Amino acid sequence: MRRTAENKLKVVAVRVDPQFEQRLRLLAEVTGRKQSFFLQQMIENGIGAMEETWLPPDVLEQVRSGALPPLQQDRTATADLFGDQADE
């Protein structure tokens, strides 16, 4: 699929335990794939379960129907990248 402005992949930064990073690096080295490939697979295969666990039923229904609710403007996607905020 050719990437356009509408379907361009986004970059997400995440902190992980060194053991997970080492396992991910080993997986990438042994298979010859990039770490980002495996991270994307984990997200694609696990986001549904996370949505079921964490989203309220009405929001989950919107997501599943393809009508994503608007994001809150006061929260930034990178709020925790440069601070030492505790995980919620």
From TrEMBL:
InterPro entries, A to Z: Ribbon_hlx_hlx
One GO-annotated biological process of the protein: regulation of DNA-templated transcription
Disordered as annotated region, ranges: 67-88
Record-given protein name: RHH-type rel operon transcriptional repressor/antitoxin RelB
Organism, scientific name: Caballeronia glebae
